[in-house]
């Protein structure tokens, strides 16, 4: 089956009903409603939609939607920025993301690059050795092993007088971590079909002693890592992401639907935080400070209305990230609510003299405002940083912190 692909910029490009086929368009809407209940993923008009605040990819009804950040007029720049940001944040294994970037140069599909990287990484780790652990089992045996289950043995009575019902620990490969990896492989196998069948078959052979389970029958979030299986950390993280968004496996229907989306507000905040720590060191950057409240309840003496700036730097600079455009039609664009929030921050943190609203850079020629509080020298400032490469982001942050 030929896959149709649409590469679109988040909060900018529209997906039209007739362009993707009406049945595929309706299937996409159903999948989003079922998979992301209560979340604002799209802005929808009569016969078109566009993705808001989320980037990544969705595969549904034979159509792949690749959603990238809008960092310029070029879709390619947005995709490069997304991969660069994901590689930089700590949750995504750097070696894994480098493998995705290499794979992206050999395919038109971002989804395929991610899933093939997972298969390659999984095969590499399994060749080092399939993880085995002790799993508790109960069975009828001709000999005693482990603990005899006395009550079960008595209930069985004479019917099984020659057998012993025992519970014992056995060192084997059939445990939840390997079952989760195998279930994720099944998603990959169905989505990217036979293109990488040789590698997929090698993984299947290495996991031949692992029982297949449906994701809905097992809580894979309870899979824990320790010293013995820590080498599977990035694989287990990625496998959970695959299984969380495998639509048909959760709903039980036969239509293939799959996605991997990243919320840009959280990704941008994590990315900027990592960049600040790289520039200044962990001891100079406080993330998500929760020591201040806007008000004190006169009856209880407790603080009310928690203030939580994204970053406190050197106890003198407060910084909040905003993943949205700071300009529109060559004019500065900001929310008054954001400014009021910054005012609450900078007045409550008495030692801070600068409060920064940080946006992604999108276009030249816009001078962003800086305000001074009427009652002092403290400032509230708007700034934008480039996110097309980590190097550009670090350069821009260094300049604005020195202002």
Summed up:
The protein is α+β, with helices and mostly antiparallel strands and 403 residues long.
Summary tags:
single chain, 403 residues, alpha+beta, 3 domains, 6-stranded mixed beta sheet, 4-stranded mixed beta sheet, 13 helices, 38% helix, globular
Describe the structure.
With 403 residues, the chain is of the alpha+beta class. It has three domains: 4-130 and 175-264, no CATH class; 133-172, no CATH class; 281-401, no CATH class. 38% of the residues lie in helices and 24% in strands. It contains 13 helices and 20 strands. It has a six-stranded mixed β-sheet with strand order 11-14-15-18-20-19, sandwiched between helices. Helix 3 runs antiparallel to helix 4 and helix 5 runs parallel beside helix 8. It is globular. The relative contact order is 0.11.
Topology of helices and strands:
Elements (H helix, E strand, L loop, with lengths): L3 E6 L5 E2 H4 L1 H14 L6 E3 L3 E4 L2 E7 L2 E6 L6 H14 L5 H11 L5 H19 L4 E9 L5 E2 L1 H7 L7 E9 L3 H16 L5 H10 L26 H12 L2 H5 L5 E7 H17 L4 E3 L4 E5 L6 E5 L3 E3 L3 E5 L5 E2 L2 E2 L3 H13 L5 E7 L9 E3 L6 E7 L4 H12 L2
Parallel strand pairs: 1-6, 15-18, 18-20
Antiparallel strand pairs: 2-4, 3-4, 5-6, 5-10, 7-9, 8-9, 11-14, 12-13, 14-15, 16-17, 19-20
Helix pairs in contact: 3-4, 4-5, 5-8, 7-9, 11-13
Distance between the termini: 56 Å
Biggest β-sheet description = 6 strands, mixed
Task: Work out the strand percent.
Answer: 15-25%
> Helix proportion of residues, in percent?
25-40%
Count of discrete domains: 3
Mean pLDDT: 82
**CA-based shape:** globular
Protein structure class: alpha+beta
Strand order of the largest sheet: 11-14-15-18-20-19
Low-confidence stretches: 248-254
Helix tally? 13
Rg: 26 Å
What's the total number of strands? 20
